[in-house]
Specification:
By secondary structure, the protein is an all-beta fold. It is about 0% helix and about 55% strand. The strands form 2 sheets. Strands 1-11-3-9-6-7 form a 6-stranded antiparallel beta sheet, with no helix packed on it. Strands 2, 4, 5, 8 and 10 form a 5-stranded antiparallel beta sheet that branches. The radius of gyration is 13 Å and the shape is globular.
């Protein structure tokens, strides 16, 4: 599912219901020269807060709540959450696509 599909402006994007999902992978691609993408979750679907994910391409375990790197995969344990989203807080010179892959 696409949370952002070729987004070119600051936006929240599509929210995902993750009640029955254990793990969520986020693929970040695009052409934006600079951007900031914040990963957020909610217990009630109303109040969101930043959540930490693990970068899949690191040899050491690095946890992040936001990224500004294209062609990155970030993995999240979403077992206790109800909703998940990726919010673009800044973007310049291009687009951003954020796609999720889930494991139940």
């Amino acid at each position: 599912m696409f949370l952002h599909n070729r987004s070119t402006s600051i936006s929240i994007g599509t929210e995902i219901t993750v009640e029955s999902i254990r793990y969520l992978g986020m693929s970040i691609t695009g052409t934006a020269s600079t951007f900031t993408l914040v990963f957020e979750a909610s217990f009630n679907g109303i109040d969101y807060f930043p959540v930490m994910g693990r970068c899949a391409d690191d040899t050491t375990i690095t946890f992040i709540t936001e990224t500004s790197t294209i062609n990155k995969i970030v993995l999240f344990d979403v077992t206790t959450y109800n909703k998940f989203r990726a919010r673009i807080t800044a973007i310049n010179n291009g687009y951003l696509t954020v796609e999720s892959n889930e494991e139940r």
